[in-house]
């Protein structure tokens, strides 16, 4: 058997309960030789035991942390151990399709790309609805009336939320400006030029930061739609899922990430790009977790008052989870209590339930 050219790095995205489906999908649909490193950040005992058993039987490397990990922190634990030409980041809530890896490597070989992403779909129906088919992400400068210059972000997803069948004829290999960490193949040598992933991004904008960093050193990015994977979002199923999900998308982690992005790239903070994202703090928690939960309650469906009360209660829980993590783990993913308190000081946006529909 030929030597593997790729090391697959799996890490938790926002929950643990899809771990088995994800791992089985990769082993069932990957024929080309590969090495695998699994970074397990604080999964509950049953998942931890499952991963230990699978690591022993399949021979992959398991890195275990007892604390929840921010995405880039998890990936950085694996990067220094990569010995292969390529590494492939994939989240633990993704299903892959036959020949997915072969086609990504083929694209990188033929184009010389530093990063290649597949056609990434979303939903419980596999390969049906597009989440990402490449996109645009760069900084541009806009002159202002006072003679100063505003630095802004241009970001665009191609074919987002479109049925694959509807745009199939328009999908073809193309150079693009960003990929997402749901699944991306990376030429390992790029890290010698840009360093490890920036752990200042706790929950958001880490993919934009990485892709712009690659472009800044002359690297290229491609989307290869002949390779298809599907990100499968679901309601968190247990306390370990819920607590990790709420921390991962906490107001504190999102706000910290956005501020870090603005400072690092010297971007205009009052730009609509940031205003939109500040206004949507908590959006993922409310739409992916809280609203489905409320609608399962008696009289919960379309009950705006009940949803308002649930939002207020969830913010209290979210603040507690964030501060508890900061107390327990003194590292760079912890945020000082005074900063956390200031972020949760107002609930004006969270009163506007109808604006979130």
Automatic annotation (TrEMBL):
Domain of life (superkingdom): Bacteria
TM spans (from-to): none
InterPro entries: Glyco_trans_2-like, Nucleotide-diphossugar_trans
A Pfam entry, by short name: Glycos_transf_2
SUPFAM superfamilies: Nucleotide-diphospho-sugar transferases (SSF53448)
Annotated ranges, domain Glycosyltransferase 2-like: 9-191
Entries under Gene3D superfamilies matching the protein: Spore Coat Polysaccharide Biosynthesis Protein SpsA, Chain A (3.90.550.10)
PANTHER family tied to this protein: RHAMNOSYLTRANSFERASE WBBL
Record protein name field: Glycosyltransferase
Source organism: Myxacorys almedinensis A
């Amino acid at each position: 058997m030929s030597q593997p050219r790729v090391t697959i790095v799996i890490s938790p995205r926002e929950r643990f309960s899809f771990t088995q489906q994800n791992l089985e999908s990769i082993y069932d649909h990957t024929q080309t030789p590969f090495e695998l490193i699994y970074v397990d950040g604080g999964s509950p005992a049953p998942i931890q035991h499952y991963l230990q058993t699978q690591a022993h039987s399949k021979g992959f490397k398991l890195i275990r942390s007892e604390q929840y990990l921010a995405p880039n922190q998890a990936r950085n634990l694996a990067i220094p151990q990569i010995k292969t030409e390529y590494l492939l980041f994939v989240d633990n809530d993704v299903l892959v399709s036959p020949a997915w890896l072969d086609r990504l490597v083929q694209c990188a070989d033929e184009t010389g790309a530093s990063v290649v992403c597949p056609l990434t779909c979303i939903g419980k129906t596999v390969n049906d609805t597009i989440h990402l088919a490449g996109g645009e992400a760069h900084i541009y400068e806009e002159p202002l009336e006072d003679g100063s210059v505003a630095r802004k972000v241009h970001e665009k997803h191609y074919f987002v939320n479109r049925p694959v069948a509807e745009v199939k004829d328009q999908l073809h290999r193309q150079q693009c400006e960003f990929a997402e960490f749901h699944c991306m193949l990376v030429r390992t040598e790029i890290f010698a030029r840009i360093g490890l992933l920036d752990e200042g991004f706790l929950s958001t904008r880490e993919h934009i930061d990485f892709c712009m960093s690659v472009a800044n050193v002359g690297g290229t990015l491609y989307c290869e739609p002949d390779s298809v994977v599907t990100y499968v979002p679901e309601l968190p199923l247990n306390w370990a899922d819920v607590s990790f999900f709420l921390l991962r998308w906490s107001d504190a982690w999102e706000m910290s990430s956005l501020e870090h992005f603005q400072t690092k790239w010297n971007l205009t903070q009052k730009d609509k790009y940031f205003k939109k994202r500040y206004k949507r703090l908590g959006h993922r928690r409310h739409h992916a977790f809280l609203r489905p939960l409320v609608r399962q309650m008696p009289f919960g469906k379309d009950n705006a008052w009940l949803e308002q009360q649930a939002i207020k209660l969830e913010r209290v829980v979210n603040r507690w989870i964030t501060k508890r993590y900061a107390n327990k783990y003194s590292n760079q993913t912890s945020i000082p209590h005074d900063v956390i308190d200031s972020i949760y000081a107002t609930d004006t946006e969270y009163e506007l339930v109808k604006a979130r529909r």
